[in-house]
Design brief:
345 residues, alpha/beta, D-Maltodextrin-Binding Protein, domain 2, 2 domains, binds fe (iii) ion
């Protein structure tokens, strides 16, 4: 039935307009090859082709800004809470109402509703920012809270990627919520004092540096570790076996989690399809894909997780922090200033 609808509709349109109807322009910062299956399943189910532009979070926001109302973007996927917040406050997203998304995504993992009841962005999957350590050199209880990473016992041990990377800005923004700015700045200073080397590389590089003995403690998002644990490459598997993993702050506020999420672009001309795509991303199939394809946690509650690496890491479940993820973004400027003062590169 739907197919006939398309045929009749398309018959009335010029060829250039036709191209727009069946195509969704996606600007995506998801840098995970396993996502290909997500997009092709959506296209198969709906007949809507996805035209993807890849960049990082900052690149996408800059591009949307410079394109303004001429932007062809329909839907945006970013991989960090602070950047989602930034896109929202800069007016780059179109707040939408969707019963499907509102019931699937817990309130603390999406933007605060606007005055008219729309939501600017929705978290679609979560990842935890955890500590890995050299099991030969470090006792688990020396690194079982974020606060302890800054204590003298961990001097010369810590490897971490650049403080200005969104994953760290969000972690530090969350710490500012938990500890307040004064204690957080002292904590950041302690991290700088404890570094084994100047920040460089991505999260996987930090895990590798622990496995090679260059540092004894590092900070990483969970999916990078899970990827090594599930690797078919024996050297990578061995690296994952050498390191221990801690979900910090289980006895206090819980481990920091970040979201990857999506939004409808402010000037989309295909809002129905854009919304359909976001709603598809909270379907059990898509959520399962985030969990099994990219080793993230679904935002939808009650799905059965069947990922051996995530299970091995957590022993089944863990306590995550409950601050609204939107609060993390609001601390960005403060965090950047603190890092400048303590010399966190
Ligand atoms: Fe990542």
């Amino acid at each position: 039935m739907r197919q006939w609808g398309w045929v009749i509709f398309w018959g009335l349109m010029s060829s250039s307009a036709m191209a727009e109807v069946g195509v969704l322009n996606l600007y995506s910062a998801r840098h995970y090859p396993t996502d290909e299956a997500l997009y092709s399943d959506f296209s198969k189910a709906t007949g809507i082709k996805i035209n993807r532009v890849d960049s990082d979070d900052a690149g996408i926001l800059a591009r949307l800004k410079s394109e303004g109302s001429a932007s062809p973007a329909d839907v945006i996927l970013l991989v960090d809470a602070a950047r989602l917040w930034k896109g929202e406050v800069e007016g780059l997203f179109m707040p939408v109402q969707s019963k499907i998304l509102e019931s699937a995504v817990p309130a603390q993992l999406r933007a605060k509703p606007t005055e008219t009841g729309g939501t600017a962005w929705f978290g679609l999957s979560t990842r935890a920012r955890v500590v890995v350590y050299d099991k030969l050199k470090v006792a688990r209880q020396e690194v079982d809270t974020y606060e302890k990473l800054a204590e003298p016992q961990n001097k010369g041990r810590l490897c971490i990627r650049s403080g200005s990377h969104p994953y760290n800005l969000s972690l530090f923004g969350a710490m500012t919520e938990h500890l307040g700015p004064v204690k957080t700045e002292l904590w950041l200073k302690g991290l700088v004092d404890n570094m084994a080397r100047s920040p460089k590389g991505g999260d996987t590089d930090q895990i590798k540096a622990v496995a090679s003995g260059e540092c004894a403690v590092a900070v990483t998002n969970t999916y990078y570790l899970a990827r090594l644990m599930r690797s078919s490459n024996s050297a990578e598997k061995a690296m994952a076996e050498r390191v221990g993993v801690v979900f910090p702050n289980q006895s206090s506020w819980g481990t920091h989690i970040n979201v990857a999420g999506g939004a409808v672009a402010r000037y989309s001309k295909n809002t129905d399809s854009a919304l359909k795509f976001l709603e598809y991303l909270v379907s059990p199939e898509a959520q399962n894909h985030f969990a099994n394809g990219n080793n993230e946690w679904p935002v939808v509650q009650g799905l059965k997780l069947d990922n051996p690496a995530l299970k091995a890491m957590t022993g089944g479940s863990f306590k995550s922090e409950l601050i609204p993820i939107s609060a993390v973004g609001m601390n960005q400027i403060k965090v950047q200033q603190m890092m400048d003062r303590v010399g966190f590169k």
